[in-house]
Design brief:
- The structure is a single chain.
- By secondary structure, the protein is α+β, with helices and mostly antiparallel strands.
- The chain is built from eight helices and six strands; from the N terminus they run H-H-H-E-E-H-H-E-H-E-H-E-E-H.
- The strands form two sheets. The protein has a four-stranded antiparallel β-sheet with strand order 3-6-5-4, covered by helices on one side.
- The N and C termini lie far apart (about 85 Å).
Length: about 200
């Protein structure tokens, strides 16, 4: 009779999880040696694995809850911004009101809606080669161009065609990790599309 492999034993135990319970004499002999902890029973190992799994699940739930709260805040902010599109009839007033709304977010230190001019050409060439928006850290030159000296990360959106934008909408944060490339910006992009239509009407 050929000797069973480790894989075959593992597969059998996986499909028969009560095997060791039904064989108490065998379970009593199974003590796994660990260099740091000494003799550890299978029960203790299973308990540790369950604790680790529970900790992982708890962290995942906390992360999901955090993202849900952030999404709720972003949704409420941009719902207010949408209402401003149709209650303001000149660019400067709209820009000022958007700043007042967006900056109520504790993580956003600055918000700028600015008409596009040639001074932003280098920014376009550097940050917008493959997209009409950029999220992440910015350098000192970009910071001085758009924000205050304390701004560490930004979300910058071109309003209009990337080759001939009409404006720039930018959010700045003093937290270097607040804006990052993989961040979900669905609500913002929806607002940007509406903003583009409104600015064309106001032009």
């Amino acid at each position: 009779m050929s000797e069973l492999t480790k894989e075959q034993v593992a597969e059998y135990l996986t499909h028969h999880p009560d095997f060791l319970i039904d064989q108490p004499h065998l379970l009593a002999k199974l003590e796994l040696q660990q260099k740091e902890q000494g003799a550890t029973s299978l029960v203790h190992i299973q308990q540790r694995q369950l604790r680790e799994h529970n900790t992982l699940l708890k962290n995942q739930i906390e992360s999901m809850s955090k993202h849900a709260k952030q999404n709720e805040l972003v949704y409420r902010l941009f719902s207010q911004c949408h209402s401003q599109l149709w209650s303001n009839y000149d660019f400067n007033t709209l820009a000022s009101n958007l700043t007042n709304i967006i900056c109520t977010s504790p993580n956003i230190s600055d918000c700028k809606l600015i008409k596009y001019t040639a001074q932003y050409n280098d920014l376009i060439e550097h940050r917008f080669t493959h997209s009409t928006h950029y999220l992440g850290r910015i350098n000192q030159q970009e910071c001085e161009l758009l924000f205050s000296d304390k701004t560490q990360s930004a979300a910058i959106y071109l309003i209009g065609d990337s080759k001939k934008p009409v404006a720039i909408l930018a959010f700045g944060s003093n937290d270097a990790n607040h804006f990052e490339p993989a961040q979900d910006n669905l609500f913002v992009l929806d607002f940007v599309r509406a903003l583009q239509l409104r600015l064309l009407e106001l032009a």
